[in-house]
């Protein structure tokens, strides 16, 4: 089974591929979409779950998503059609760094996908290129809640603490107008949903040739979470506007 298939099973119970619960997703979207008729772009959209939720509750909204995963985009296309949202959702199968839109966007989202651009500030630089005047950015990024082990840094990258993360964003010319720090429950629920879904799939498909590999993956990833990064990793989502002197 390849990575995409594993990811599809792992996220079956938590289609938002970030440690954020449904109520927090709705609140963050409401903050970034004050009118309801905006043009929204998601860089690293995965299955486009953020966009689907935004479209489903705002009939005048239009959205575009970019991702390198053909499998995730196929899932997004299928879900959009089933929900009657396909006409208002454009999906682009390409590296988000190479995306050239025809028009700017009122909200640019990138949640859990800053690695696509090589980090937080390059992701904000890309978002800025696509942003209409007065627009919003909604970015979700990991941070270190406590000093990480070397192993955690190797696994999750070179993050900073929460205050430093926000300071870097502000110094880059952005003003946070709202935000959400994922709770312990959201962080734990996400990990249990991923590794629990994988383990359950393996137990439910004992005759499948991939069953053993999938159960091993679930066991390894659960153990990495509990042993390597659970105590150190945090996740913050920020709703940003350009600071006037940087606009
Ligand atoms: C953790 S998932 C987050 C998905 C979505 N933003 C969400 O919160 O549900 C990260 C996504 O970034 C995508 N990705 C990684 N590198 C990328 C790149 N260079 N260009 C576009 N997408 C990329 C992955 O395929 C994956 O779907």
Q: Brief overview, please?
A:
This protein has 247 residues and is α/β, with parallel strands linked by helices. The chain is built from nine helices and seven strands, in the order ααβαβαββαβααβααβ. The chain has one domain (3-240): Vaccinia Virus protein VP39 (Rossmann fold), CATH 3.40.50.150.
What does this structure look like?
- With 247 residues, the protein is an alpha/beta fold.
- The chain has a single domain, classed as Vaccinia Virus protein VP39 (Rossmann fold), CATH 3.40.50.
- The protein is 44% helix and 22% strand.
- The chain has nine helices and seven strands, in the order ααβαβαββαβααβααβ.
- A seven-stranded mixed sheet has the order 3-2-1-4-5-7-6, sandwiched between helices.
- Helix 1 (3-10) crosses helix 8 (184-204) and helix 8 runs antiparallel to helix 9.
- The chain is globular and about 55 Å long.
- The mean pLDDT is 97.
- It binds S-adenosylmethionine (SAM).
- The site of S-adenosylmethionine (SAM) has 20 residues, from helix 3 and strand 2.
CATH topology: Rossmann fold
Helical coverage, percent range: 40-55%
Shape: globular
End-to-end CA span: 47 Å
User: Structural class, please?
Assistant: alpha/beta
Ligand list: S-adenosylmethionine
- The CATH class name reads Alpha Beta
**Strand coverage percent:** 15-25%
Give the name of the CATH superfamily. Vaccinia Virus protein VP39
> Count of helical segments?
9
What is the mean predicted local confidence, pLDDT?
97
| Number of domain units | 1
The second-level CATH architecture is: 3-Layer(aba) Sandwich
Which strands sit side by side, in order, in the main sheet? Answer: 3-2-1-4-5-7-6
Uncertain residue segments: none
What kind of assembly state do the chains in view correspond to?
Answer: single chain
| H/E element order | HHEHEHEEHEHHEHHE
| Beta strand count | 7
Estimated radius of gyration: 18 Å
């Amino acid at each position: 089974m390849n990575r995409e298939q594993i990811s599809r099973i792992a996220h079956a119970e938590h289609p938002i591929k970030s440690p954020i619960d449904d109520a927090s997703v709705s609140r963050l979207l409401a903050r970034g979409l004050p009118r309801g008729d905006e043009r929204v772009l998601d860089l690293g959209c995965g299955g486009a779950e953020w966009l689907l939720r935004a479209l489903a509750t705002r009939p005048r909204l239009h959205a575009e998503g970019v991702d390198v995963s053909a499998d995730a985009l196929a899932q997004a296309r299928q879900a959009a059609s089933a929900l009657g949202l396909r006409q208002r959702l454009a999906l682009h199968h390409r590296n988000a760094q190479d995306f050239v839109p025809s028009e700017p966007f009122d909200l640019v989202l990138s949640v859990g996908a800053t690695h696509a651009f090589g980090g937080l500030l390059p992701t904000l630089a890309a978002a800025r290129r696509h942003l209409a005047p007065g627009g919003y950015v909604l970015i979700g990024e990991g941070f270190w809640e406590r000093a990480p082990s070397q192993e955690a840094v190797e696994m999750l990258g070179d993050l900073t603490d929460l205050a430093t993360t926000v300071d870097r964003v502000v110094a880059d010319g952005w003003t946070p107008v709202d935000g959400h720090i994922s709770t312990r429950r959201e962080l734990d629920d996400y990990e249990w949903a991923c590794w629990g879904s994988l383990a359950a799939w393996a137990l439910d498909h004992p005759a499948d040739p991939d069953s053993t590999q999938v159960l091993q993956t679930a066991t390894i990833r659960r153990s990495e979470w509990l042993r390597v990064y659970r105590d150190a990793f945090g996740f913050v989502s920020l709703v940003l506007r350009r600071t006037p002197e940087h606009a």
